[in-house]
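Summary for the lay section of the report: proteins are chains of building blocks that fold into shapes. Here we show the chain for non-specific serine/threonine protein kinase and then a coded description of the shape we predicted for it.
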Amino acid sequence: MAKLGELYRKLTKSDIMILEYMVSIIGKYEYIPVENFMRKFRKIWNQKEIVARIKKLNELGLIQKHANVEAYRLKSIGLDCVAIYMLVNNNIIKALGDPIGVGKESIIFNGLTPDGNIVAIKFYKIGRRSFRHVVKVRPYTTHIENDSWLIRSILAGKREKEALTVLNKCHIIGIPRLYGHALHTIVIEFIDGINLYKVYRIDNPLEIFNQIIDVVRNSYKCAKIIHGDLSEYNIMVQFDDVVKSYIIDWPQYVLANDPQAPDVLKKDIVQLARFFNRRFKLDIHPDRILENILT
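The coded shape description reads as follows.
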């Protein structure tokens, strides 16, 4: 399979225009009839040129032809290319590197900003295989009536951008810096660390736990936001001269004024305490921590 960056470099502005059109009507069709492309672009290109561009995108694997009729649907990698174009065009990134992490709902690449800063570029990939998890921890997707996993991914990216924007305004230590956003994609600072679930030995695990709780507390009190799915899988630990902890993956956030907020906050703290108690043999009482945050 060709690398995403290599595929993107094969595209012209005209190719991007086709893909952008498909994004713009993503909620109306699963497969877009070829007649729609003809009507949309007839003032720019003739029929032969339109067909040639659609054929190219199909051969690159960015769109997919229906098995029985002349209609096409946008694939996830096609959405990726549109997002890259938007990020480059808005001077958020200038280069896309290699994948550095793959999860159930996203794939993360390294990249560079125009200023030369190393960043992490996360493309949400919410799909059928993760549907049970999506419904369980991402209730914001349940109002989507059609079966568009691309729309769910776009919504996840939008929500994480919203959360990080507010959190960054509060200058909370332990929250990654947001550089930008496009569709289902966010660009954040690169954290040279390791996911907490991969850590088995720490000199002072209670210190790490308290760092994370400080992020939870400050997010709640300053940004009025609760993570909503806090666990060892969305916490990163950076082992440098000073150990630092970061909370990542915020699209499932809940506002502090939500009626369910206390229960969500309690669930986050209980899950975190349970992990530290089990992994590092601590004796943390989540109820006391919850009371301290809420008062």
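Put simply, here is one thing we learned. The first strand starts at residue 32 and ends at 33.
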